[in-house]
Known about the structure:
Low-confidence stretches of chain B: 188-192
Oligomer: heterodimer
Number of strands of chain A: 17
Helix content of chain A: 25-40%
Number of helices of chain B: 12
Strand order of the largest sheet of chain A: 16-15-14-13-7-12-11-8-17
Number of helices of chain A: 15
Largest sheet of chain A: 9 strands, mixed
Structural class of chain B: alpha/beta
Distance between the termini of chain A: 54 Å
Shape of chain B: globular
Largest interface: A-B, 33 and 43 residues
Amino acid sequence: xxxxxxEFLLGRSSPAPCTIVIFGATxxxxxxxxxxxxYNIALDGDLPxxxxxxxxxxxxxxxxxxxxxxxxxxxxxSRQPHNEEVWEKFAxxxxxxxSEFQDESGYKALAQFLNELxxxxxxxxxxLFYVASAPEFFGPILDHLRTSGLNKPADxxxxxxxxxxxxxxxxxxxxxxxxxxxxxxxxxxFAYRIDHYLGKxxxxxxxxxxxxNAIFEPLWNSNYIDNIQITCAETLGMExxxxxxxxxxxxxxxxxxxxxxxxxxxxxxxxxxxLSADGVRxxxxxxxxxxxxxxxxxxxxxxxxRGQYSKGAINGKEVxxxxxxxxxxxxxxxxxxxxxxxxxxxxxxAGVPFYMRMGKRLPKKTTEISIHFKEPPNVLFSTYxxxxxxxxxxxxxxxxxxxxxxxxxxxxxxxxxxxPVKMDFHYxxxxxxxxxxxxxxxxxxxxxxxxxxxxxxxxxxTAWAFVDDIERAWHESDNPPPMTYYPAGTWGPSEADELLAxxxxxxxxx
Amino acid sequence: MSSTIxxxxxxxxxxxxxxxxxxxxxxxxxLDQFFADDDTRTRASxxxxxxxxxxxxHLLKNSELIREIxxxxxxxxxxxxxxxxxxETKAASWISAHxxxxxxxxxxxxxxxxxxxxxxxxxxxxxxIVLSHLRSDLPLIMWWQGGLSENFDAQxxxxxxxxxxxxxxxxxxxxQFTKLRDAVYxxxxxxxxRGQLHFPFHDLAFTRGHRHRxxxxxxxxxxxxxxxxxxxxxxxxxxxPGHRSVGVYIAAWLSTQLNAKLLQIEGDSFRLQGSGGxxxxxxxGTATEEDPLQVVMLGPDLKLSIGRAENxxxxxxxxxxxxxxxxxxxxxxxxxxxxxxxxxxxxxxNNLLLSKIFPQVLKMNGVEPPE
Lengths: 510, 371
């Protein structure tokens, strides 16, 4: 029986109460993102009654100790102010379960604990297993969920789902293996692979911009677009001890394989037939499958630049080079910067280069997508001098979220002189309230069974196949493309500029 | 209600507190000048937001409301105040801006305010004044304070993109709801056009019950409570004195969603027939400012009560169904007029729920709904 009072009250799927079991409960993600997200959902009144959290980790801890640690961090990082009364009620449904990830008896004990909690409180027995542990434990956790029976719904009216964090594998074989492990334990419709970029308001706005407005879609193709640039720039280096993890991954695997290819697929996709999870993801997968693979080392050499930052300065402060960072071996060949020229070989995008770059220790932190339109026909104003004739549509993902369009305008005066001007929309001046954090949206969607903002198995594997070609050229060929270098605080190596200059283009100045 | 300009308002107008006087024909020009003079100000607007009042004593309060509202909703604010009983016939305007720091704290984001005071016979120029001072390409959202007078005519409301009223302010709800019905339902020659809303409207009396509706819906997300819903035979809604409309909207919502047919109205009591049998909804004007709206739903298998918690920012929801006895806190920030209007401005388009229950609201106010 449906709740008749829910009609028209929610603009989204209704989340169901569940027990969220977090593997990796003592980790940074749980403290800084997951629990504050759930708290803010509770503060907004959207957390279904009866929702519980059980943290699963190896260190011994009582329920109260765990709650106290979470409260301390929540006070620091919560999007909305910490409210004692709401936290008190929320914290009463947080529990801690100690076990090693590889200990089968720990999962059996967890099953018993969940049964006790659910029987005591009554209500639905839905379970959401959130795998937020270190990646090497993903497989064992999934296996043990299966062998302990926790992968199956507790009864006919309940469900059991799994959410898996990135990194989702380190290459195609490991991703396939992990997918097999996921699907051995959970059917694909109950598996949710997190890519938190998809939870960002600005990423969700790409589909609205394209498909809820009539003016853009007729131009959104190779007839009118010259090139598309996707940039993810960070000022950070290896602070916080992240060198140990990062050096095993690199920019291509850490950011391009997931977040940036997801943004590319949103920009390049065909309109879906409907807004169902698979309706949208089917179109995104088609983009991934249309990416021109770089099968040979020479293709990688021509279309990809990898780099490391050397000593330089960020915001006036001197910083060391990548190989001098903490936990980075001096001989490391891991890229902290990558620039790619990608082609989507389909009717819409034939011949349009997608330039993508991601780098650490660049001058500013920004993520944006810029659509560069072709120049107008060489007829009317072609003889008049102007800095650039191309119209550019910019989607700023973060910070200063918004959209702008650059166009030419006549400068007032007796002669015809033109300069580019900008039409600008900023979230900060248009929408007063701050948006929920990405994890709040994603957790609610997982509880509601809406997988639209989660990566599907085939999306992940196709993206890995594309990335693996490049990794093979870098690390397995006899004559790999060289590592390039750039001073920290500059916009990357000159070879990345040449990637565009060779085709008569330049990176958009940010 | 006197429709002359009170002394304090006149002083505020003369002293510049409500803006700089500006000839009617030069408003846009002088506003452009205001922003051109200072680079640090960003002119921002997503809508034309007009507040109309026939009570000049509300002018200071409305200007303050605009200041608060624009901190989160950038707009061109148009305040129209009628002073019909003033001897001199005159239309005058003042311009100002409400500036706030944006989320980053870096920019000063300003919403323009244009104030019109229409005295004497010029009060019939409302539509002309409002419609000629809109920012182009932006929707017109109009908050009509008080009853819908003769100035609420087709020339004006045919151009409104969204109407806000507050039926709690109506001394004669039956007459006012009739006028509202005639305005918002399209009267076309094609049958398919009948019964369709001509433009979206929002009643703040309906918005006042928003958090209680969410709380009720939340309570029945619990399957055990949901099983007891069919047995509910009595609902008691306690509202503030003078806020009967708030209670009516809750009653109309409950009965519409339960597909319950209205059988009889006896004063503040509604007798209905639902799928589970007869049900009575009783309104009581006994609530207090500390707890302005309470809803109790009773049946053999269920008791649900919702009211303000001790912590005033929350509602206490107490549900007893089957063997379960559940108490919860749900957020319900205290709602000023600014908050209520802000809630409306956050929405896009038509309020589908209000559209659905409005025919029942009309019936409960003794007004025939459209065919």
